[in-house]
Design brief:
9 helices; 2 strands; two-stranded antiparallel sheet; single chain; elongated; 231 residues; mainly alpha
Length: 231
């Protein structure tokens, strides 16, 4: 019975970890004021694509709205090199359709994980488990295990970001639409590899901090229980 209870605690913990991961991605890409503008300025994107910053940011806002399901298409008119044109060509639109499906799938996964976390907690209470004892230990054990795996992956990826960036795309996409040409596709120019490196670092910081807070909360509960054991 105790094994089942701790297993439920781990299910709750890993569900929360996945929720925090997806929310961290969302926080960096959607909730960070000025993030894209700073990145565009840092890598001189406006000069590369020959656009005004305001026009580029408007395209970005519409693109991000599309990824979250806020608009139905990527037919976005803007000014490039002084000429009115569609920002995205057909290849980019087809690729971003795949990216959109990933974003929407991630939001669905977050909802599923939230349901799993709630159900596992409900099951613990239904089994009359000592939730105050089991959950903090599951949280600490689960987050430590996850940190070890995350640290190992980070160390591996940092040895050759480009290589694993390509591997990442091969895992997520079943076609070659993600291989864009800077000469014809503006998308690759506004989000160069360096942009993805910066984004990954920001997500890692936000996610790592949230996991650390989660671990410390569990640890504090354990220490309090040891200091003031239940009678």
């Amino acid at each position: 019975m105790k094994f089942i209870q701790y297993l439920l605690g781990l299910v709750c913990t890993f569900s929360l970890i996945i929720i925090l991961l997806i929310t961290s991605v969302e926080a960096v890409t959607y909730w960070t004021p000025g993030f894209f503008e700073k990145e565009y300025a840092k890598y001189h994107v406006t000069e590369t694509v020959d656009m005004e910053m305001d026009d580029l940011l408007e395209v970005t806002r519409e693109m991000m709205s599309y990824l979250r399901g806020g608009r139905d298409n990527l037919n976005i008119m803007t000014t490039v090199a002084g000429q009115q044109r569609e920002f995205f060509n057909q290849r980019e639109i087809d690729h971003m359709f795949d990216v959109r499906n990933l974003f929407l799938a991630a939001l669905t996964i977050r909802k599923v994980c939230l349901a799993l976390a709630v159900l596992s907690l409900a099951a613990l209470f239904a089994l009359r488990a000592k939730v105050r004892r089991i959950l903090p230990r599951a949280v600490c054990g689960g987050t430590v295990l996850f940190f070890v795996v995350l640290a190992a992956l980070t160390a591996i990826i940092s040895t050759d970001f480009t290589k694993y960036f390509i591997v990442f795309h091969h895992i997520l996409f079943t076609n070659s639409l993600w291989i864009l040409d800077p000469a014809t596709d503006l998308l690759i120019n506004i989000v160069p590899e360096e942009f993805f490196v910066d984004t990954a670092m920001r997500i890692a910081i936000v996610f790592g901090t949230s996991i650390l807070v989660m671990f410390l909360a569990g640890l504090i509960c354990i220490l309090k229980q040891r200091k003031y054991p239940a009678k």
